[in-house]
Amino acid sequence: MKLHSTYCSLFLKLTFILAFTACLANAAVHHHEFVIQPTPVNRLCQTQHVMTVNGQFPGPTLEVHNGDTLIIKVTNAGKYDISLHWHGIRQMRNPWADGPEYVTQCPMKPGVSYTYRFTIENQEGTLWWHAHSKWLRATIYGALIIYPKQGSSYPYPKPKREFPLILGEWWNRDPMHVLRQAKITGAAANVSDAYTINGQPGDLYPCSNKDTTIFPVEAGETILLRIINAALNQQLFFSIANHQMTVVEADAIYTKPFITNVVMIGPGQTTNVLVTANQPPGHYYMAATAYSSAPNVAYDNTTTTAILEYKSAACKSKTGSPMRPILPQLPAWNDTNTANAFKAQFRSLSKGRVPLEIHENLFFTINLGLINCSGPSFRCQGPNNTRFTASMNNVSFVFPKRNSIMQALYQNTPGVFTTDFPPVPPLQFDYTGNVSRGLWTPARGTKLYKLKYGSHVQIILQSTNIVTIEDHPMHLHGYHFFVVGSGKGNFNPRTDPARFNLVDPPERNTIGTTPGGWVAIRFVADNPGVWLMHCHLDVHIGWGLAMAFLVENGVGKLNSVEPPPPQLPQC
Ligand SMILES: *[C@@H]1O[C@H](CO)[C@@H](O)[C@H](O)[C@H]1NC(C)=O
Ligand SMILES: *[C@@H]1O[C@H](CO)[C@@H](O)[C@H](O)[C@H]1NC(C)=O
Ligand SMILES: *[C@@H]1O[C@H](CO)[C@@H](O)[C@H](O)[C@H]1NC(C)=O
Ligand SMILES: *[C@@H]1O[C@H](CO)[C@@H](O)[C@H](O)[C@H]1NC(C)=O
Ligand SMILES: *[C@@H]1O[C@H](CO)[C@@H](O)[C@H](O)[C@H]1NC(C)=O
Ligand SMILES: *[C@@H]1O[C@H](CO)[C@@H](O)[C@H](O)[C@H]1NC(C)=O
Ligand SMILES: *[C@@H]1O[C@H](CO)[C@@H](O)[C@H](O)[C@H]1NC(C)=O
Ligand SMILES: [Cu+2]
């Protein structure tokens, strides 16, 4: 037994060295410089001064191969504290490069630079990067495309062309001002004035027509759209007039291909689709509009468009009849059935790695909430003189202010966080029923949940009817998780697990809680560090809809968090 394991570990080490050498032969190191700076951007007939990277909106697209290393020097030449997050990158043993402010690093103050260094390990597909400070990600985001390792290819026919298609949200104000107003009033922040595709609202908005994003195709060819939802606060439906889409990948994991007329995508998620230009040459609108799962909640009801343009039809006017593009039919804003049916089609292409034996059986309620307000009335503009809040398991997450959790952990600084996040709700109630008003106000805290290295974790994310039911796109940093099941109403631990898909469940980094229902996820805690889990609607994370895991080190250096890089920003 002993001999065998020594042999195995020797063998593993050898394979590791061989693989590592092979990697070195092929892997590239990409250097980038990002300067955060105020930039005038003209949209909807007016100019806003918003923060961008290098003056670009959306920001630069990063293109790498699986196995490559990125070294990105970020300089904050703006007026707000900021940090950047490489959304979906696993950052194995390297939480220092993950980015959420006050969690894995202190933000960069104006004038400060910080260099993010990380290597892509066994991930390929579409991810993205964005600011992880306040509402700065409204304008600070870009695509992060990971091609297969040099010499390997996609598990689907190579498309003729590829395009990032980034959905976003635009305010006729500096988004930081919109956030500030909401922080003062306690009410929900103003909804956006437009949605955008690659930064452009499109033909249905004023003063936008001449800049509408165009996706050129040759008749007959198949293209790949790398759809990213970078919107701050809104799930979106996306369709292309007269063209079907074949979903092949989501959140940088290949899926079993399936055909659809509509994609529903939550903030934080990515979805790759193949589109074949098999229609009469012409111009076809690609459009996105809100999927708003909460009844009675204000949302931006506008529609953004781009144009799929057959090259042979390019010279003809896109507006003059009969060439005016056709609009696709989009689902109604509240079409939860279509959203759920779309989500239900995802299957992972590879199978067999789902953890079957569970060591940590967690149950997290995802709650909005209200705080009864006694201050001046301008600060109590939530429903019936309240302020909005949100929580998981009744803990409204408070981001530290004087240190980051990772830095406090590494330096053994007490008083920054505790590790008593509850594994189950402190109180059981009819989660999706009529929740008594007395239960709507959560406690506050910077509470983490500790996980042993390598433990098998299952979490039931249960949406509740506190204030309203809603689809919350829950994002876990540092991991991909298997989505093994979902359903309506309250999770039933006796009957629901029997229906779990443990064969080929999709793997994601962001999944919506079924509105008025639950979703079950599993992962192996093989990445030590502090990893935030939160709702990717920024309006909700600001109210405290977050928690963090502290995944302990395993045995030996290769299973432990790396030492912090030089020049980590200080708070
Ligand atoms: C929010 O919307 C209200 C009503 O339309 C408007 O009066 C206010 O100026 C807006 N605030 C911001 C910060 O955009
Ligand atoms: C969108 O909302 C605005 C104001 O909330 C309303 O006036 C308008 O009719 C709505 N438009 C559509 C297409 O529903
Ligand atoms: C969706 O909203 C419309 C009003 O905009 C309403 O008539 C319809 O009943 C709603 N559908 C569902 C499924 O709630
Ligand atoms: C506000 O108060 C009214 C009247 O008591 C009640 O009908 C309504 O449900 C309350 N709204 C919230 C969100 O508590
Ligand atoms: C919810 O419960 C409260 C009392 O706890 C009651 O006043 C109210 O009518 C109930 N609402 C519904 C829709 O059942
Ligand atoms: C807040 O006020 C409501 C009545 O408006 C009451 O039902 C509830 O218990 C109060 N919550 C707290 C935490 O005081
Ligand atoms: C949350 O905690 C607060 C404060 O301890 C308590 O008043 C409230 O009833 C709790 N609600 C739930 C849903 O556990
Ligand atoms: Cu949310």
Question: What is the fold's blueprint, element by element?
Answer:
Layout: H1 2-26, E1 29-43, E2 46-53, E3 62-65, E4 69-76, E5 84-87, E6 113-119, E7 125-131, E8 141-147, E9 161-170, H2 175-185, E10 194-197, E11 214-217, E12 222-229, E13 235-240, E14 245-250, E15 253-260, E16 263-265, E17 270-276, E18 283-291, E19 303-310, H3 336-343, E20 360-372, E21 386-392, E22 395-397, H4 405-410, E23 443-445, E24 448-451, E25 456-463, E26 473-476, E27 481-488, E28 507-508, E29 510-512, E30 517-524, E31 529-535, H5 538-541, E32 546-551
The structure holds 2-acetamido-2-deoxy-beta-D-glucopyranose (NAG) (7 copies) and copper (II) ion (CU).
Residues 394, 426-427, 438-439, 441-443 line the site of one 2-acetamido-2-deoxy-beta-D-glucopyranose.
Characterization of this structure:
With 571 residues, the protein is mainly beta. The chain folds into three domains: 23-147, Sandwich (Immunoglobulin-like); 161-344, Immunoglobulin-like (Sandwich), CATH 2.60.40; 360-559, Cupredoxins -  blue copper proteins (Immunoglobulin-like, Sandwich), CATH 2.60.40.420. It is 9% helix and 37% strand. It contains five helices and 32 strands. The chain has helices at 2-26, 175-185, 336-343, 405-410, 538-541, and strands at 29-43, 46-53, 62-65, 69-76, 84-87, 113-119, 125-131, 141-147, 161-170, 194-197, 214-217, 222-229, 235-240, 245-250, 253-260, 263-265, 270-276, 283-291, 303-310, 360-372, 386-392, 395-397, 443-445, 448-451, 456-463, 473-476, 481-488, 507-508, 510-512, 517-524, 529-535, 546-551. The strands form seven sheets. A six-stranded mixed beta sheet has the order 10-9-12-17-14-15, with no helix packed on it. It has a six-stranded mixed beta sheet with strand order 21-20-25-30-27-28, with no helix packed on it. The termini are far apart. Residues 1-23 have low confidence and may be disordered. The structure holds 2-acetamido-2-deoxy-beta-D-glucopyranose (7 copies) and copper (II) ion (CU). One 2-acetamido-2-deoxy-beta-D-glucopyranose is lined by residues 394, 426-427, 438-439, 441-443. One 2-acetamido-2-deoxy-beta-D-glucopyranose binds next to loops. InterPro entries: Cu-oxidase-like_N (IPR011707), Cu-oxidase_2nd (IPR001117), Cu-oxidase_C (IPR011706), Cu-oxidase_fam (IPR045087), Cu_oxidase_CS (IPR033138), Cu_oxidase_Cu_BS (IPR002355), Cupredoxin (IPR008972), CuRO_1_LCC (IPR034288). It is an enzyme of class 1 (oxidoreductase). It is found in: Secreted, Extracellular space, Apoplast. GO terms for molecular function: copper ion binding; hydroquinone:oxygen oxidoreductase activity. Residues 1-27 form the signal peptide.
